[in-house]
Amino acid sequence: MNVFMYTLLVTIAVCILLIWYINTYNKYQSFIIRLNEAEANIDSTLRKRFDLLNKSINIIKANVNTKKEVLESIVKLRSRKLSNFELDRQLYEAINEFNHYKESYPELKNSESFVKIDVGLNETEAEITAARKYYNDIITDYNKIIRTFPSNLVGKICKYKEKTYLDGKDMNDDDTKDFKL
Questions:
Q1: Which domains does the chain have, with CATH numbers?
Q2: Of 17, 43, 88, 137, which residue is the least packed, with the fewest Cβ within 10 Å?
């Protein structure tokens, strides 16, 4: 074979590798865009939950005669900047406290504002569950391409890292450690 043929073969090989690299890179970018979208949805829903719980403080204080601070965890969250992971955990604690007031003080159920907040919190529960599932599904696919050959080569070149699930687990967490065949 002559030099022209070798040059042509090398050029074709480089073009094929370049096309593969661009395709894989674009796949990563697609996942990153979807992850950002899912995080924005989760953030929006968590903020809605926070606002509902924050509004409930004055309603509870107006309807319940208590000396202790109402929904202390929400009051503490007002000035803190938290990740969605931590905010989600903190809001669950506040919702449990909210539910405690709902169970302990039946007169709250007579307050139309309190009932609206309770309904709103239940709606956001469904929204956050769907958003969490969507986010975790994307994370699973994203982490798969980070771990599998040859797409992991592009991930290493671009310094992409595995992401954790919204529940805080990563792909190395093994729920079946004690499982034996």
A1: 3-157 (1.20.1440.20)
A2: 17
